[in-house]
TrEMBL record:
Entries under PANTHER family matching the protein: GLYCINE OXIDASE (PTHR13847:SF289), SARCOSINE DEHYDROGENASE-RELATED (PTHR13847)
InterPro entries named among the record's database cross-references: FAD-dep_OxRdtase, FAD/NAD-bd_sf
One Gene Ontology molecular-function label: oxidoreductase activity
Keyword annotations: Oxidoreductase
Name of the protein described by the UniProt record: NAD(P)/FAD-dependent oxidoreductase
UniProt superkingdom: Bacteria
Segments forming domain FAD dependent oxidoreductase: 8-399
EC number(s) given by UniProt: 1.-.-.-
Keyword Lyase belongs to the record: no
One Pfam family from the record: DAO
Amino acid sequence: MGDGTKKKILIIGSGIIGLCSGSYLLKDGYDVTIVEREPLGDGASCGNAGAIAATEIVPFALPGLWKDVPGWLLDPLGPLSLRLSYLPQFLPWLYLFLKSSNQKKVEKSTKAMAVFLKNAFDDYRPLLGNTGLESLLKKEGSIMIYKSEKGRTKDRYFWDLSQRNGIEFHHLNRREILEREPALGEQAHCGVYQPNWGHFASPCDLVMGLSNEFQKQGGNQIFDEVESIEFKDNKPRIARTKGGQALEFDHLVIAAGAWSTRLSKKLGDNFILDTERGYNTTLPTPDVELNNMVLFAEDKFVATPMNMGLRIGGAVEFAGVEAKPNYDRCETLLTLAKEYLPNLNGKDGTKWMGRRPSTPDSVPVISPSRHHDNVHYAFGHGHLGITGGAVTGRAISDMIAKRPTELDLAPFHINRFD
């Protein structure tokens, strides 16, 4: 715009990705509006495990993983469930997931994610600034727990791949685990400590705090649902909402989590995204204390010490965006947790289900549109929404400002499965 006025940026989605993008764009001097379909506090950004998992660079689709899937599906305490009625819709994602487990593709994705997450902590600093939110960030590292040496040996390729891409970790024996986490029981046979890991003690307070700071710095926030995108001069220029608002923009950022591809398809950008529905329970009086965020390797769940209690979460359920939650998954996770934490008090917990927007190769979409130079995508972070929030926000602001960046965005492009 040559008249000296600020360019208008519209961001669809006020989860951690949308808020970080909006905050960075405000710092660049744009007029930024975020529109969100749900009240703050309801989304995946608030109820998650809170991790800044800067070491989680290896994709989920590893070579040979498919051999474990049938056993997981048949195990009532297993980490994976699939509602059979959803299978037809799930097959395209599953096909690309299996293709992505090719070793060459896994190595390429890991290398890209290592660069992406290198600044996971540093890129939050400008956003936390003077907000008072720094106290929420705990950088204590994490411990991955194994039931046996056989379990740790099975993950040898995972750890080798991590190490080759610059991840620091240290193997722990049982004595060393108990020195760090005395509350763990006999199931904790051996483990791996990762120092470059942290978590926010209240993800919801982080999201609410960033939202308040965004508005304090001049950003606009609207609660409404975008129904359609209208064109002007052959470019997307207006978003129409259910509430009847016409939101004009110079640039559009779609960061709507699990709902992002519904909007991208309207603009001609198809991408196969699915929703890993994750469950957790937050226990206000767990009667055990953890000093680190603890991950349980074989059973695929985590325990995070938070301001409001101990959060036990994990599991992957494929059932689509709209299906009702199955809170039996929460009970399953608590049953597993008690095997590792024998003194755990599982009473009075708050159950939650969130929709993780997941790509087949575990690499998010951070990309311009194929067709419109004023449309940009930021979605598909899966388990790494909080982890990659600030990095993505900085990348989106660099993309719109056309600044050079050390991050090669080619592996994150929306066209990579074409």
